[in-house]
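Chapter review: from sequence to fold.
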Amino acid sequence: MKKEIYISKGVGETRIAVKENGKLAELHVDKQSQVRTVGNIYKGIVENVIPGMQAAFVNIGQGVNAFLPFSEISDSELIVEKNKKTQNSKEVDVLLKPGQEIIVQVIKEPFDKKGARVTTDLSIAGRFIVLIPKSKYIGVSKKMRDKYERRRLKKIAMEIKQPGLGMIIRTVAEGKTDSQIENDYKTLIKKYNDLLYKAEKNQAPELIHDDLKVTSSVLRDLISEKVEKIVVDSKEDYKNIQKMVKEDALEIGDALEHYKKREPLFKESGIDNSMMKLLRKKAWLKSGAYLIIERTEAMVVVDVNSGKFVGKKGHEENSLKINLEAAKEICSQLRLRHLSGLILIDFIDMVKPENRKKVFLEMKKELRKDRAKVAVSEISEFGILEMTRERTGLSIIDSLTECCEVCNGSGRIISKDTLLTRIDYWLRDYKKQNKDLRLKLFLHPEVAEYLKKEKMKDYISLMWKNFIYLKVIKDDTMNKNEFRFTKMSDLKDITNEIGTWKGRN
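The token string follows.
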């Protein structure tokens, strides 16, 4: 499989795109204004213990208390042993009380007004290994298919394993040498010892292990000898990746490129167009059929429709053809949109059980490409497939848009940071075609304040990068997802005269 990685650093956000065989397969948005906490380890304080909810709330210093289900407590010293009469009960008794200090790790980001979800079952991810403290377990990624390679890696793990420290060998470890894996293991042990030291010395609540941010995390998991192209438009990121490649002894040849053109990288590579389509509910299939993807509070619902498809066979055969095509695209859309939780898929009805089986197996095959954990059930006689997908971060819709205050949350508009990225793109296009470098930028008052106060550094950067003087003007008539440009000398709107970037989207 041909794999390419594109990394574009804009104003307020860094975007990472992964192409597989020329098609966009993954998209990640790393916002400066959004703090990533998944993987972070904290020394927290138990605030409340609620046996009826089978959960505790832990203060980790993030404003909203983290949610700790009893099922996520693995420390034997914190769990009350059940007697024979209660062994069959699903409820757990724990030795927790308010004010008690506890070490927890974030497994789900805080969302809306809910705090982060945490666990006491710690893990520290490295390049080739995931370290599991207080464990004897040794495992190899299930996605690694070669049984001989699995056997080799497990043998290495057993030789280097230290008492009380388990591990899982990651998929990217395939083909790596003994020394590479051992060095990664030693690095992780040092990190674990460092966090234990911080936990002992520092007062709770305190961050004691800061996991990699989005960009670094994606690179850690994806950069390998199998990547044919890594294109980066930031000099800083380019140097950091060079360092990572050298430290991990990756033989990527000439795959790493520093993109220096004025045309925005994502626009040049066609990724922007694909990215904007992810904000739509409808996703078209090549056959003319389409998907409707709806996200609700409780679940994600996907509806498969025949649309413009005109089959030459009977209903059953046509339905099977559409559903097989839809299964591939659904798996792709789930990865791209970062959709998670309970997902219900309504396929076109098929009478024959063997046809439903074919679609189910196609789903399972395509889901193997997904780095997130998934669980999927067979298609019911009503054409419904149920599945769950691990939540690893914000969805693309949440990353690129924000709630619309006018419609009380029923709709969304592009976020302020995404709007600033669009303004940056517009300025680059303008600079290529014009020599008048003094402009007025009209924005909604709230966005203008955001740019001039919270994003002053980026405001200055916009001008320096493009050698353009910008005077920001508050305009009550503007919507929050709009921008408008005029020349300093007159008030003629020139926004829609430049390239394909339009202010009113």
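Two observations follow directly from the output. The chain has a mean pLDDT of 86. The first helix runs from residue 147 to 160.
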